[in-house]
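Lab meeting, item 3. Inverse folding demo.
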């Protein structure tokens, strides 16, 4: 059983993921499945090599058979497990609980050789529908407080298999970084009685300095205090704190927006590895006036070193205004 331990100084929770110590990729992060996917557990016909599917979008076939366009399966080496009780304990000045949660893999396509940037718009939208469907289901579990939906693309971004896939991890606590966003947004709302994300969008639309492009439903922008070169945010124009309540037309548009962003980054940066994360409100709360869900995309172009780890500061060598201008000039694909 994984273990959740709380740092008594910072309040940060750490997952001691004992099950993942068995992973063959733990110390060989550079090795990926050979091109072509002959031995890939995510390819059609290899369904028996994954845990039984939780959900699938398919045009033919039955559960755990070929014919799917997207599959969701439990992670074979989960950071957290669904089974068990939290069993919260104090051990002297330390706090711990069982590593209860969920860790799932979304296999985005049966095509081993494609990428999210190359997929049809509908297929990209299906990924975001799958995220929504799984969050809606997981929020029924009262033990869970937060779901982090994310994609690691490329070995440098943490992907150990090259077949296109994303992940989600459901947690029994709200992560510190998410709580910092929630707290900062609430402080702004208490002072201004407005959502800070809505105000950011209004200002960015006025200046146009950091806007990459916009649609009826979304703004794509380089944040003012970007931590990393070419960091981008996809922000829905309509206020909504909870991704799980996003309506179908908005998710369809998000598929086009995400694919367009990734195609621009591929062209500008020669297909960089990246991380993409959905930031949303915690599970067991209602709509929040002060918070706004969004997607953050972080190309892996720099590495964190001693200064960043020691101070919490980031050093970004590319001004977000320059990054946004460069991506605007590429045009829409």
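The presenter then showed the designed sequence:
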């Amino acid at each position: 059983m994984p273990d959740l331990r709380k740092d008594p100084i910072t309040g940060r929770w750490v997952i001691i993921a004992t099950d993942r110590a068995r992973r063959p990729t733990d110390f060989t992060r550079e090795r990926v499945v050979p091109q072509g996917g002959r031995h890939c557990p995510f390819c059609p016909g290899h369904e028996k090599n994954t845990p039984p599917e939780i959900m699938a979008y398919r045009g033919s076939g039955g559960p755990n058979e070929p014919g799917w366009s997207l599959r969701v399966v439990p992670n074979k080496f989960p950071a957290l497990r669904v089974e068990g009780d939290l069993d919260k304990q104090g051990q002297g000045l330390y706090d711990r609980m069982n590593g209860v949660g969920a860790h799932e893999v979304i296999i985005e396509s049966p095509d081993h050789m494609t990428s999210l940037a190359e997929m049809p718009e509908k297929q990209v939208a299906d990924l975001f529908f799958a995220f929504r469907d799984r969050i809606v289901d997981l929020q029924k579990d009262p033990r869970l407080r937060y779901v982090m939906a994310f994609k690691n693309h490329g070995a440098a971004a943490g992907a150990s298999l090259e077949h296109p896939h994303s992940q989600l991890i459901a947690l029994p606590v709200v992560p510190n970084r998410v709580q910092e966003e929630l707290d900062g947004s609430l402080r702004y709302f208490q002072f201004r009685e407005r959502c800070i994300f809505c105000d950011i969008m209004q200002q960015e639309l006025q200046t146009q300095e950091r806007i990459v492009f916009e649609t009826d439903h979304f703004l794509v922008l380089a944040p003012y205090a970007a931590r990393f070169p070419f960091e981008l945010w996809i922000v829905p124009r309509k206020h909504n704190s909870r991704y799980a309540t996003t309506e179908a037309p908005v998710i369809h548009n998000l598929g086009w927006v995400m694919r367009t962003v990734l195609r621009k980054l591929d062209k500008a940066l020669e297909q960089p590895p990246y991380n993409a994360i959905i930031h949303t409100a915690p599970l067991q709360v209602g709509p929040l006036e002060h918070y706004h869900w969004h997607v953050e995309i972080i190309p892996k172009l720099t590495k964190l070193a001693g200064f960043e780890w020691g101070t919490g500061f980031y050093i970004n060598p590319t001004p977000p205004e320059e990054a946004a201008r460069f991506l605007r000039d590429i045009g829409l694909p």
